[in-house]
Please model this.
Amino acid sequence: MAALYTVIVADDEDELREAVCTMIPWEDYGFCLVGKASNGLDALQLVEKLEPDLLLTDIRMPFISGIELARQVREVRPATNIAFLSGYDDFEYAKQAIQYNILSYMLKPLTLEGLGAELRNIRQKIDAQFALFRQASPRMDEQDLRATMLMPLVLDNYPDPDGEAHAEAFARQCGLLRDPDDHPYYTVMVSTLLAEDGSNCTDSAFAASVNTLAAKYLRGVGFFASGKVISVLLGNPSDFEEYLHILADEIPQMASRVLNKRCRIGVSRAVHTLTALHEAYRQAMEALRQGDPAEGGVQFIRDLAPAVKGGNLLCKRALDTLDQHYMDADLSLVSLSGMLDVSPNHLSACIKKYAGETFINILIRKRMEAARDLLSSSPMKIQEVAQRCGYTDQHYFSYCFKKYCGESPNAMRRRLDLEKAGERA
Model:
């Protein structure tokens, strides 16, 4: 039998969640249940910890909705697929999350037979994804012409002053650029696969795998050359800011899960001309060469600046900045990386390596410690404490506080009052 896909179930309806977890013969449908959660926060933490192939979640849950959960899962584990289970016949609402690897949208009430049939469909879709990623040979289509046009621009240096005009004309002819008004930015990404001994084992078929994933997020063309896959990605600065770090995470996640191989990636800065692609390629190669060549991982050239190169120093700067901004309800790994002018990928890796835990867990701990201090030393209302610590929802705050501190904010206040009364007596 083929390997089982791992799945996490998240639903705030206890009876439904337990029924789905216990009554579905998961292995018969090709899955292995590895975790369950009653809210979006716990589900997100489980996804970070267990890295499942599938998250089956209610679309409307406490604290973090299914839509927001899907967005955050894409940030930390883009290789995880998501299926929505919902009692709301609201496809317009669900369409907000279609871009977040949503494989299925099922309406409650759903029979066990109906859910089983849908799990078979989901299994087939994931099978197809994995098969496409591990395909044995590149697709032969119009991308070949675009790759042929780009290869010399990327690999060779052209000082011709008229080169840009000629390059843009050819790019429009072969379909890389849409029309004379299409003037995107370009980023070069270089990807390699590593064998068990750390040697380069990249083959030409991996170019098709990278192209398949890249097409989910950005325009682009990739080709194989000299033992590496070189991708030229097109977009505007906001496209790169939103999607590039996600793509750069999904490729090694899929390489590990599907091919059982580590993957190293180097990413350049964005350039605005085709004739600057060679310099961008040099940057991507410089980034690729950083660190242990036998280890997988993603490196952006922007992360090699002297001010951020030291991982331990960067982690300290990140924790100091988090101390200053933890009360911001919108603080995220992406926004924190923007403050530090590094990629989210690099920041996440540094925090895990030098602090020993994830950004989400560190942020929650900081907020809970601050809340505990405020509750014990000030007369502020619970709602005020919650807002001061970055929570707009008091119930969400109380749930996190009890989970972290072992008692609710009100219970802690009562206990402290009794202790103070005992001391005075």
